[in-house]
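Quick illustration, no need to memorize.
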Amino acid sequence: AFTSDTQVLTTGFNLSSERQTSSTVHDLKFSPFNPNEIALGTEDGNVRIFHIPEDGLEDTLAEAKRTLEGHSRRVGVVEYHPLASNVLVSCGADYSPVLWDVEKGAEMMRVDESLKAIVSAASFSTDGKLLAVTGKDKMLHVYDPRAKSQAASVKAQEGAKALRCAFTSDTQVLTTGFNLSSERQISLWDVRNLSESPVKMFVDVVDSGTGILMPIVDADTKMTYLPSRGDATIYFAESFAEDPHCEVLGMYQSGATQIVGIAALPKSVLDVRDCEVMRFKKLSLDSTIETISFHVPRKEDEKESFQDD
């Protein structure tokens, strides 16, 4: 994950005792409102909030600014709210997603105490009104945190492995998983229709790979990038309001080395004059970091101007 336009932070280690914990980091996210704030979900059931110095990270962070305690088992998912500052959700192996007030270090609410599955992914809608979670129960659960209730749920995939989910708009959520033939599959759902007629707006079998596709959504371009740990490929799809609502556009082969981790750079570093729309940093098995860039194809003499669309 990126600490700034030019600095990247990697994890995959146990925090040492001088960092006041011996717990493995399972997830990390940077605040969309404060690029120097990072939330870590750890094995001991806590969410730790760290602040990166303005001049960059030059030494080991010795102390968390705040520790959010509320889970009884490991925290595997943390996600910041896209519009409300200092609000994040954490999901642990104790099943219950928890909303936090980061500034106060206080639990705001338990989203669902009846959930009976470990959560593998969580995503807020682009307008921040809804929260979607997926887990080992193969279900897509959608909540309205303001009403403290579950808006809808549906069985999203048939395969045995855990799902991933990501909102692509205010009302559409994309899920990735496996079908009964162990083929990787992506589906698109309209959350407004889940309770009455839960029909997939779009479904497509991608391939027979074994890694779980991890959706990374670019809401500006309506693009979803689908890397997977253990693979060297990244699929990319476009979602839209009209039928068929989603289309897998292609696949990028990211060299011979497998993806261990991947992070999207801030939009501010993109070379828009070269029609660059997304840039990733890929962590490989040999611990090298590779740059992956996506461009919209344009003729050289047309790059200085923009089309009507």
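DSSP finds no helices and 23 strands in the chain.
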